[in-house]
Specification:
By secondary structure, the chain is α+β, with helices and mostly antiparallel strands. It has one domain. Helix content is 53%, strand content 20%. The mean pLDDT is 85.
């Protein structure tokens, strides 16, 4: 009788650990959403690795510019100017407050409405279109906003069951 109870307890503990491990990135995603909606820069900072996010988004934007600025003798100049402008915009957005403005105050055309006060309500509407582990320490979530273009969020394990956003595509 006591052996059956012991095995049952072991199985229950293992099951709890597996469920906690498997669901931890979704919990971090939910907490990030809550922090963004609350316009809480301190809480947002806990769930985003801003230096890595900035580097990854900047690299992707530079690659887009490299592909689009081909073919004319002015291409190098246009490429340099485009990259400089992109870098300035990304520097402004790669902060907790910048991400909050990007997510909460974006107009349908993608521009940010700078007239929105910092205490304005923010409700993020949409759904997860898919998610999954890419490795034990990397997770992605595909998000489909109610209005706008779908995007992917990439998280890495920061420590234990805590995850941080490192890339958007």
């Amino acid at each position: 009788m006591s052996n059956g109870w012991l095995w049952g307890a072991i199985v229950a503990v293992v099951l709890v650990v597996v469920v906690a491990y498997a669901s931890s990135p979704l919990l971090s995603l939910s907490r990030l959403k809550t922090a963004l909606e609350a316009r809480n820069p301190g809480a947002v900072k806990q769930y985003v690795d801003f230096p890595r996010l900035k580097a990854n988004v900047k690299r992707a934007e530079h690659q887009k510019i490299d592909r689009s600025e081909k073919g004319s003798f002015l291409a190098p100049v246009k490429e340099a100017v485009s990259k400089t402008i992109a870098d300035i915009k990304l520097d402004d957005l790669a902060s907790p407050q910048g991400l909050i403005h990007l997510v909460c105050d974006a107009k349908p055309d993608g521009d940010i409405d700078s007239s929105v006060p910092d205490n304005a309500p923010c409700t993020l509407k949409g759904h997860l279109a898919g998610f999954g582990y890419q490795s034990l320490d990397r997770f992605h979530a595909a998000v489909q906003p109610d209005h706008g273009k779908a995007f992917n969020m990439f998280f890495v394990r920061d420590h234990g069951l805590h995850w941080q956003l490192i890339d958007l595509k």
